[in-house]
């Protein structure tokens, strides 16, 4: 089975914005994604985004699939045909053919007062 590489533009989701959070000892650039507006599922072990990879017949740049978000059935059924057609492609996917690089040492935790 092939390995794939996926690139997603999370800023195509509704209400997403970049911001900078400053604490007492650190400043971090963050991406803020509204949970309800984007139909994310918050579970006990994480927050999930449901996606589908749709195979492309004639993809550009070697892409074999486009990535779109899945929505709960009731939300999807309320969308008009025009709204369904205009749902954003938030990413693309293609087979990973290059040699995989070894991942280096894990970054050490930084002692700051931000919650992550």
Structure overview:
The chain has 116 residues and is mainly beta. Helix content is 9%, strand content 31%. It has a 4-stranded antiparallel β-sheet, with no helix packed on it. A two-stranded antiparallel sheet has the order 2-3. Strand 2 and strand 3 (27-32) form a beta hairpin. It starts with a strand and ends in a 21-residue tail after the last strand. The mean pLDDT is 86.
Would you spell out the secondary-structure blueprint of this structure?
Elements: E1 4-8, E2 17-22, E3 27-32, E4 41-42, E5 47-48, E6 51-55, E7 65-69, H1 73-78, H2 81-85, E8 91-95
Antiparallel strand pairs: 1-8, 2-3, 4-5, 6-7, 7-8
User: What general form does the structure show?
Assistant: globular
Q: Radius of gyration, Cα only, in angstroms?
A: 18 Å
| Element-by-element helix/strand order | EEEEEEEHHE
Outline the low-pLDDT stretches: none
Q: Separation of termini?
A: 35 Å
User: Helical proportion?
Assistant: under 10%
Strand percentage lies at 25-35%
Oligomer: single chain
Total of helices: 2
Strand pairing plus helix content: what structural class? mainly beta
Strand numbers in spatial order across the main sheet:
1-8-7-6
The overall average pLDDT, rounded, is 86
The major sheet is characterized as: 4 strands, antiparallel
Strand count: 8
